[in-house]
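Subject: Interface between my chains keeps coming out wrong

I've been trying for a while to get a sensible model of this assembly. When I model each chain on its own everything looks fine, but I need the whole thing in one frame so I can look at the contacts. Pasting all components below, labels as-is. Any help appreciated, I'm running out of ideas.
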Amino acid sequence: MSLRHAVLAALLSGEYSGYELAKAFDVGVANFWYARPQQLYLELSKLEKDGLISGREVVQRTRPTKRLFMVTDAGLAELADFAAAASKPSFIRDDLLVKVQAVDHVDAAPVIAQLEQRAAAATAKVEILDKILRRYRGDLDEETYLRHGSPIGPYLTCLRGRRFEQEHHDWCVRAAELLRDRSLV
Amino acid sequence: MSLRHAVLAALLSGEYSGYELAKAFDVGVANFWYARPQQLYLELSKLEKDGLISGREVVQRTRPTKRLFMVTDAGLAELADFAAAASKPSFIRDDLLVKVQAVDHVDAAPVIAQLEQRAAAATAKVEILDKILRRYRGDLDEETYLRHGSPIGPYLTCLRGRRFEQEHHDWCVRAAELLRDRSLV
DNA sequence: CTACACATGTAAACGGTTACATGATTAT
DNA sequence: ATAATCATGTAACCGTTTACATGTGTAG
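Reply #2:
Try treating it as a single job with all components included. I did that and got this:
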C-alpha cells in the first residue's frame, strides 16, 4: 500500500491535479515511484474519502475544469507514521534483465536491439532529471545545495533517479557492445 | 507475466528444486528478478502443467525428497518468443525513496536510520555478488571473460545487480550523512 | 526433545495493469 | 472537421503478498 504514500509525498511539493500527477509519475519524473494515470485517479479518490487530502475545483477559461489536491494534517500524520515504519528491501524487476539472463540460449539480436533502445531512453531521462536538478539548485553549486538548499528530499530522490538511469544506460551500452562482438564470431 | 520467464531463464543454468530457486530468488542472487517461495512453487506447478518445464523426483537419504525441474523444448521456444518481444520500461519502486521524498516534512531521524540499514544490506549483497562473479570468471580477468567466457547472460545480469547495489549503497550513505548534518543545525 | 534447515504447498486479500469509456477545448 | 492535449474516470483481470498449513531429517 505504498502508492498511497507516494502520492501524499508528491503532493507535499504543491497542489496538483490527477492529470498533472499522472505526467510526473508516468513520464519523466517518476524518480521515486511509478503509476498509471488510472491508478492515480483511483488513489486520489480514496485519499480524499479518507480525509488525507482535500481537493478543490479550479475552473479554467482555456482548459477543462480540474481538481487540485493538497495534503491535510491527517495526511501529513499518515506520512510521518509511514516514514517511521520499516521499509521493504528494494529489488530490481526488469523484463530486459530476464532476457539478458537467457541470452546464451536464445537469439541475441532482438535482445541487443532492446538494450540499445533502453540506453537511448535512459539518456533522455538523464537529461530530464538534470534539468530538474538544475532548477532546484538555481545559482547554488551542488555541494552547497545539498548542505543548505531546500527542499532536500525531492533533490535526493532526483539524484538517485539520475544515477540509476546513468548506470542503466552504461550497462545497456556495454552489454549490447559485448553481445554484438560475440555474435560476429 | 514475467515471473514465468524469470523462472525459465533461471532453470537454463541447471536443474533446481523450488526450494533451491527460492533461495536464489529471495535472498542474495535475485539480480534479475525477485519472488517469494510460495509464488515460485505456484509458478513451477503452472509451468509444468503447461509443459514448459519437466520435473523429476529425487529421493535423498539425508534430506526430504525434492523435485528438480528442467526447461523443455517448448519452454525454450517460449523464452525465445519472450526475448524477441518488446520490453516494458524499467522503473524504481522503493518505499525508502518515498520516505526521503517526504523528509522535509516529517521527522528525519527514522529515515536516516533506515538509510543506514539499507547501506549495510547493500554492502552485504555486493559481497555476495562479487563472490558469484569470481566463481563465474575462474582464472580469467573480467575483460577476457566478458569477451570470451561462458555463460555471458548470467554474468551480465550479475554485474548489473552489483552496480545497482553499489550505487544504492553510495546514495544511502551520502543521503544519511547529509540529513544527519542538517538535523544538527 | 527441541531447534533448525530442508522441502512443499493452499487460500484470501491486495495492489497494479489493461481495456474500456467519456467529454471539453484549442490548434490546424 | 479533425487531431491533439487536457481532464477524469470504471470494470475486469492478473500478478504479488500475506497468512496459513504440513511434514522430513539432522544436529545439539
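Reply #3:
Confirming on my end. Chain A has eight helices and two strands.
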